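Hi all, posting the design record for the shared folder.

TITLE: backbone redesign
STEP: 1 of 1
STRUCTURE INPUT:
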């Protein structure tokens, strides 16, 4: 047995969500607090234990505005089209809520107190192996960061639409061509008291044992 309280660790894992509408746009996020979370996140598994991950924090209003403009340049049509498809296909309440909150973030992205851009200090290869190795060494750290933020009352969301214009974003931030932006996390203290676990299919329905579509038994 471990000394972790499983009810608390499970609650943290199950209630850390993409936060868009519930970001408090009026409250500053201290750099010191984010650095504490990065200390936690830097302990996430990394292939070969190579320290190749970096973090860019953005709280300058003009820079945030410029990044938000890049985000909206591609994101407006993308999300409006997504909204249209959900409406035409009669999407459920969850799908509608995701699109609605994404459009809200689109309009307010420049107002978030801080943006966090995870970076890997090299470029991905093209094979499936190269891609799996590359992303597998950086995404665990981003998720650890989001968990650490959540534990401190800070919400975040994994977004990537600004990467349609990666070169422009890199030029704006002084990022060299030899490194890769992974995402953009709008970051703010969240409003409200609780997050409920997301509705998901039972583990037995999405897990196979030894062969494809072979259902595991207890």
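Okay, here is what came back for every position:
SEQUENCE:
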């Amino acid at each position: 047995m471990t000394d972790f309280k499983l009810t608390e660790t499970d609650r943290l894992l199950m209630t850390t969500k993409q936060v868009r509408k519930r970001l408090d746009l009026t409250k500053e996020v201290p750099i010191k607090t984010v650095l504490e979370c990065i200390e936690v996140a830097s302990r996430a598994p990394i292939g070969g234990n190579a320290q190749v991950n970096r973090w860019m924090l953005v709280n300058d209003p003009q820079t945030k505005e410029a990044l938000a403009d890049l985000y909206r340049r591609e994101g407006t049509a993308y999300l409006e089209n997504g909204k249209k498809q959900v409406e035409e296909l009669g999407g459920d309440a969850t799908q509608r809520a995701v699109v609605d909150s994404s459009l809200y973030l689109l309009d307010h992205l420049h107002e978030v107190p801080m943006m966090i851009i995870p970076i890997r200090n090299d470029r991905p290869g093209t094979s499936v192996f190269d891609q799996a190795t590359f992303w597998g060494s950086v995404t665990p750290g981003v998720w650890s960061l989001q968990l650490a933020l959540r534990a401190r009352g800070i919400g975040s969301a994994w977004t990537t639409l600004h990467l349609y214009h990666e070169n422009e974003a890199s030029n704006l931030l002084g990022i060299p061509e030899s490194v890769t932006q992974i995402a953009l996390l709008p970051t703010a203290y969240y409003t409200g008291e609780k997050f409920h676990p997301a509705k998901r299919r039972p583990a037995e329905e999405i897990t196979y044992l030894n062969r494809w579509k072979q259902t595991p038994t207890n």
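COMMENT: The chain is about 45% helix and 10% strand.
Let me know if anyone wants the other runs.
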